Amino acid sequence: MSYDPLAIDASRIPSRPSPAPRPFFRTPVTETPLVKFTLIAIGLAFIVAMIFLPLAAVFFEAFRRGTEPFFAALVEPDALSAIRLTLFVAAISVPANLVFGLVASWSIAKFEFKGKSFLITLIDLPFSVSPVISGLVYILLFGSYGFIGPWLIANGYQIVFAVPGIVLATIFVTFPFVARQLIPLMEQQGRGDEEAALSLGATGIQTFFRVTLPNIKWALLYGVLLCNARAMGEFGAVSVVSGHIRGKTSIMPLHVEILYNEYNFVAAFAVASLLAFLALVTLVLKSILEWRYSGEIAATGGSH
User: Fold this and answer.
1) Reported confidence tier of residue 65, pLDDT bands at 50, 70, 90
2) Mean pLDDT in the chain?
3) Cβ(130)–Cβ(180) under 8 Å?
4) Strand ranges, E, within the chain
5) pTM here?
6) Long-range CB pairs of 75-78, under 8 A, 24+ apart, other chains included
7) What is the pLDDT of residues 136-178, one digit of tens each?
8) What pLDDT, in 10s, does the model give residues 177-193?
9) 248 by DSSP, 3-state: which?
10) DSSP 3-state of 69
11) Cα dihedral sign for 103, 109, 111, 112?
12) 3-state class percentages of the chain: helix first, strand second, coil last, to nearest 5
């Protein structure tokens, strides 16, 4: 058999891989610029129509007659009473929910016990129950014709149509916020860090403050911010248990309703703009924290 130096050995030629089949459905990143622009425009239009314009209308109506009527409405005695009561209720309900959220999330994420799923369901209950229903529950419990209300009133304890009822109703509607921020994060982190600290001789308190708390501080802060925003803006449950006593049990959202029903639109929108401003401050603080500590937040998994 003669050898041909010009002959090509087919076995030495690398085979070219066959092209991958084209997917039938395209991913969103392969859409045409027109489609991308259309989707972005729809999203922006919805945000402008449903969020930006209503907020702008609130501030416009508040300052429509100038700054003097605006500040006069805020320093009016009933308005000042509503502002003070709103801040007072938030100052009690937020720390209470912070403690509850820490305890509940620690118990659910770090321990195995019967009824854990039921406990998580109870934590989510205020998200599914109407705030008005929760207010009615407190009326049935602590009202003058409720289960324990007559005994409390006879002993000098007024719950419904007083500040304690407002605090209890606010705590009920806001207590899931801290816990629901912490539970997924603590379950994701597991128990390895705590077990390592305990094996090195740390006490339970030292383990919590030096290991657990630094890992969850950003999620905890987010939960506190959300809880505070909801506490100051709650209307339904508080409306039922407060009695709408002007200057005594009227918080800012209820005071806005009272002013609006009296056709005092400038004062109503002035107080409403203060509520909106506090909500915007909460969002700004959250955004600043995310921007300033983005690396640390991502490292601890607290960005969710």
Assistant:
1) confident
2) 84
3) no
4) none
5) 0.80
6) 76/267, 77/247, 78/246, 78/247, 78/250, 78/255
7) 999 999 988 888 988 988 888 889 999 999 999 999 999 899 9
8) 999 889 888 888 888 88
9) coil
10) helix
11) positive
12) 75, 0, 25
The helix/strand/coil state of 238 is helix
Number of neighbours of residue 165 by Cβ within 10 angstroms: 25
**Amino acid at site 115:** G
Do 253 and 271 form a contact (C-beta atoms < 8 A)?
Answer: no
Nearest Cα neighbor of 248 from 131, 123, 1, 82 is 82
Question: What does the block give as tokens for 143?
Answer: 């009202």
> Among 131, 98, 71, 139, which Cα is nearest to 253's?
131
The pair of structure tokens assigned to 282 is 């909460």
Query: Dihedral of CA 139/141/146/148: which sign?
Result: negative
- State the Cα angle at 232 between 231 and 238, rounded to 5°: 70
Q: Dihedral of the CA atoms 107, 108, 113, 116 (nearest 10)?
A: 130
Nearest CA to 207 out of 215, 217, 197, 199 is that of 197
Whole-angstrom distance, CA of residue 175 vs CA of residue 97: 5
CA quadruple 194, 198, 200, 206: dihedral, nearest 10: 80
Count CA atoms closer than 13 A to 152's CA, side-chain side. 17
**Cα(241)–Cα(20) distance, rounded to whole angstroms?**
66
User: How far is residue 198's CA from residue 208's CA, in Å, rounded to a whole number?
Assistant: 10
Q: Are 290 and 219 in contact (CB under 8 A)?
A: no
User: In Å, what is the CA distance from 82 to each residue of 2, 138, 259, 262?
Assistant: 106, 21, 12, 16
